């Protein structure tokens, strides 16, 4: 019965979260939150953290992305999460631990993750920005922001300045293990992209660009 009630509460949180995530930014939608929940649960089990806190924090961590401009999205999300969890009937101890994790899942406002649950949420969020899914999310964001592939303020800039840095700042051993192969996949993608662009830049110096592209 207790488990049923816990599941009911969680489903209620997912329903409320869905309303916040239903907007144009598909790189930070409910699907992203659900994947962060999956990663978070996996890391929590391996690192011995509180799965309930992680699940709730993952589901709500980005709900404030279109919130008040004077706050960071992590601070907005944390404030909204506190209200939602109070209304759903969660104990104050859980609410505060979820809040602490959400507020430090991004470095925007300089909050450092201090609890194991906060560190795991941070890592789980970054794991959704690597691999094929990470690339998909990056280009989804580029479509919204109008970023070119390379150059100033581009997809390549975001990759080098943000995603490459995540590698150095992961908090848990478990996350570093999952991150590595997905990051190598991304590195291979960018090498291929630059090689293809180089072939195009030789256009004009060759008789046929298609010859360069297709015959290597
Ligand atoms: Fe976020
Ligand atoms: Fe996120």
UniProtKB/TrEMBL annotation:
Domain HD per the UniProt entry, residue ranges: 29-130
SMART domains xrefs: HDc (SM00471)
Listed InterPro entries: HD/PDEase_dom (IPR003607), HD_domain (IPR006674), HDIG_dom (IPR006675)
UniProt-listed CDD domains: HDc (cd00077)
PROSITE patterns from the UniProt entry: HD (PS51831)
A Pfam family the protein falls into: HD
Domain of life: Bacteria
Protein name: HD domain-containing protein
């Amino acid at each position: 019965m207790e488990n049923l009630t816990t599941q009911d509460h969680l489903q209620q949180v997912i329903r409320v979260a869905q309303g916040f995530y239903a907007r144009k930014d598909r790189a930070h939608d409910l699907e992203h939150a659900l994947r962060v929940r999956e990663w978070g649960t996996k890391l929590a089990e391996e690192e011995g953290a509180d799965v309930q806190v992680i699940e709730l924090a993952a589901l709500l961590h980005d709900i404030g992305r279109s919130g008040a401009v004077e706050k960071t999205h992590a601070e907005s999300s944390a404030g909204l999460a506190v209200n939602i969890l109070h209304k759903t009937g969660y104990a104050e101890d859980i609410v505060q631990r979820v809040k602490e994790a959400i507020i430090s899942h991004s470095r925007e406002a300089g909050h450092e993750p201090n609890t194991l649950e906060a560190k795991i949420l941070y890592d789980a969020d970054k794991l959704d920005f690597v691999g094929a899914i990470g690339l998909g999310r990056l280009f989804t964001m580029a479509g919204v922001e109008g970023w070119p592939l390379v150059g100033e303020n581009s997809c390549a800039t975001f990759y080098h300045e943000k995603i490459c840095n995540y590698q150095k700042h992961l908090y848990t051993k478990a996350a570093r293990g999952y991150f590595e192969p997905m990051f190598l996949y991304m590195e291979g993608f960018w090498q291929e992209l630059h090689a293809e662009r180089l072939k195009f830049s030789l256009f004009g110096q060759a008789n046929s660009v298609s010859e360069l592209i297709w015959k290597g």
